[in-house]
# Entry
Amino acid sequence: MDLVNHLEGRLLFAVPKKGRLLQAALNLLEGADIQFRRENRLDIALVKNLPIALVFLPAADIPTFVGEGRVSLGITGRDTVAEHEAVVMALRKEQAESGKSTPQEDEGGCVEVMDLGFGSCKLQVQVPEKGSYVKPSDLIGKNIGTSFVHLAEEYFATLEAEADAANGTKSKKLKTKIIELSGSVEAACALGVADGIVDLVESGETMKAAGLKAIDTVVSSTAVLIKSKNPTNIDTVELVAARIKGVIAAQKHILCQYNVERSKLAAATKITPGKRAPTVNALEGDGEWVAVSSMVERKKIATVMDELTEVGAQDILVLEIANTR
Ligand SMILES: Nc1ncnc2c1ncn2[C@@H]1O[C@H](COP(=O)(O)OP(=O)(O)OP(=O)(O)O)[C@@H](O)[C@H]1O
Ligand SMILES: O=P(O)(O)OC[C@H]1O[C@H](OP(=O)(O)OP(=O)(O)O)[C@H](O)[C@@H]1O
# Structure
């Protein structure tokens, strides 16, 4: 089938085609009942049950497609959105300096719809653990390896401006040399390509193994749902956003059910106040006891169970929530 000719009228939704965010993004789509079958080697998949076409793209390119309005919705890392914004800013500055017309602020760009709660990492300035660089300003005028060229340029431009202000000097050109690398950035210092790097850190294992330490954070990132400033199919954008929000809320919560004596109900429901209010039902044949059902934050459930037991709750059950609105 010629997929490109079947895109008319469909909302284009960009999803990372590989890498760290792929599986969690696919899980979200499944939870939101966005049904599709991706043919081998095809980067476009038509959604069977909604007027959507999924476009599988490298995470780093998604903000460009969304920012330019070619695709209306996307899942990517906040770091890639920040890099795209830095690219746009650099272009505007260049155009302004060369006297060419500058695009208006509202001409394009990405709008963050929601944090998706996975893919946490930090874009950090890293230097050799045993070297002489201690603080970010020690790297001014040195070689910096990174895949986030424009964020690194912005970062060092600010550092250099601060140093200039302190010294009463003024330099127009960036003294620090930003070297673009497309992967394995952590190897750059050991191999003599760079004095420091700007790269992503999650567990810190890669940084440690490469004998590096972080001395500053440029951006803290998680995966985000982004939309273009003027998306097509607004109703479908809102529907997808509401469904994804439901899936995320469900992932963050679990359902806690227990029985408790009516006299202890107030103390128990103080521990499990629920989303709006706990559901309380009389227990058949026992007027003194009630059954309580309440949504609880997943990360708090162990403490909640301890506290419920302390106030006399019994038969505590914890159940998964598949979805919620
Ligand atoms: N170690 C990590 N832990 C958590 N999230 C990460 C990590 N590394 C990257 N990310 C997030 O995932 C996004 C995609 O990175 P990833 O390296 O998986 O992409 P990729 O498309 O495979 O790129 P590349 O081919 O350059 O490695 C990043 O922009 C960032 O938001
Ligand atoms: O702190 P950690 O948990 O060790 O993760 C950080 C590493 O993950 C990313 O690289 P990735 O594995 O995607 O490979 P790449 O170097 O080819 O981009 C990033 O660029 C770091 O190298």
Remarks:
- Residues 73 and 237 are 7 Å apart (CA to CA).
- The pocket of PRP (ligand 2) is lined by residues 20, 183-186, 199-207 (CB under 6 Å).
- Residues 121-221 form a domain with the D-Maltodextrin-Binding Protein; domain 2 fold (CATH 3.40.190.10).
- The chain has eight helices and 15 strands.
